[in-house]
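Hey, quick one: can you model this chain's 3D structure?
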Amino acid sequence: MAAKLRKGDKVVVLTGRDKGRTGEVIEVRPAERRALVRGINMVKRHQRQSAQQEGGIISKEGTIHLSNLALADPKDGKPTRVGFKFVGEGAARRKVRFAKRSGVEIDG
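Sure thing. Here's the predicted structure for all 108 residues.
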C-alpha cells in the first residue's frame, strides 16, 4: 500500500496525551506502522555518559502509531484523510496525494 504519511508532512494527533497538537514527521517506520513526530510523545530516557555525549536524563520523541495521526489540511490545518489520484497524460502521468477535505494536492 502507498504511504499516506511521509517525512516532512505536517500532522495532527487524533488521540492520546498529545491530542490536537500538530508537528512535523521526522521519520516513518512502515514495518512497525509507527512514526516519529517532532515535539510529540516526548519521553525521558536515561543516557550513559560517553566520549561524545554527556550522561543524564534526556527528553526525546517516542514513536506514535500511524492510526493516531492525520495529515493537516494545507488550507486550514484541520485533520484530513489522504487520497490518491493520477495527474497528467501518457508518460508524464504520475500518482499524487491529495487532501480529501479540501481537494488540494499535497505533492506538487
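One thing worth noting: The first strand starts at residue 10 and ends at 13.
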